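This section describes the prediction task in plain terms. A model, or a person checking by hand, is given the sequence of a single protein chain and must write out its three-dimensional structure as a string of tokens. No templates, partner chains or ligands are provided. The sample shown here is typical of the held-out split.
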Amino acid sequence: MPETLSLRRLNRATLARQMLLVRETVPVPEAVQRLGALQAQEPKPPFLGLWSRVEGFRAEDLHAAVHDRSVVRATYLRGTLHLVSAGDYAALRTTLQPMLDGALKALGDKAAGLDRPAVLAAARRHLTEGPRTFNELRALLQEDFPDAYDRALGYAVRMWLPLTMVPTDDRWGFPRTASFTLADSWLHTALAEGADDEALALRYLEAFGPATAADAQTWSGTAACGAALERLRPRLRTFQDDRGRELFDLPDAPRPDEDTAVPARFLPEFDSLVLAHADRRRVIADAHRPLLTTKNLRVRAVFLWDGFAAGLWEVERKRKVATLRLRPFEPLPREAVTALTAEGESLLRFAEPDATDHNVELADAA
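The expected answer:
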């Protein structure tokens, strides 16, 4: 009978791997790789996510990593933008291609009839001439394929062709409308030719285990992760959760005691931790999960108390005053408010360094 891991034990194990029990002193590229990539639909959240995890993190550290190309921002897991280590992107981008191909189903008939080889050849030709925003690239592709829907052309290229975003000196590393370039040219290396589902599954367990096959599939967007875990079974340890579901894990990965202390922590919008499992109770209670996502599918920022999501937070800036507002799911104990206030003030000083006042307020429950 496999050992049963309680919800709190799963919580501590995952937080240990996500560098949320103790901030760790590691270079940014190593941190991004260990974290299994950082979701990055918008450029700012990864800076805040790394601040919560890396000891002494400075914004210029991530700027340096994206400019020296050791970290890239690109379409990756689940067909969404992520910050990912250059090594992982080169090794695993091909593994994700079947999932990215399937994403075109969202376009329905609008993508019908696209000549994939011709579209890819045209896109490569245009991007070889220099980086392009997708507005620029769509316009060029529309000239090449006047009968195709321009949005379908752009989306198909985003899914079919390995591209990376070009960083700038903007505050958070990328402008609102960033340029894209060919990934192999940007990285000065060819991407892996074959799929390596097992490497992808192992990267997941390193960052988010112990986990079920369904969890791995939720994180990656591909069912291949589940099959890979089954093939890897002889190299892994297995456990079960409080509902009797089988969990896979690396033999020597950390699984701290469930009473391990966890400091107050802030996670930014779209943080991968709250999206990386099919069963997210190890991070957020089922009752609170509907509050996590807005109607337009934004994933809200949460704060952790005793390791679990205890509420939402947001920053408001009025002239020189920056205010971080806590919206707890339930009333917080006094010690939580004290710890969250101190951590929140530090976060504000990082995120809004030019503000003269940094305040943390406790708002009504979410």
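For orientation: The first strand starts at residue 38 and ends at 39.
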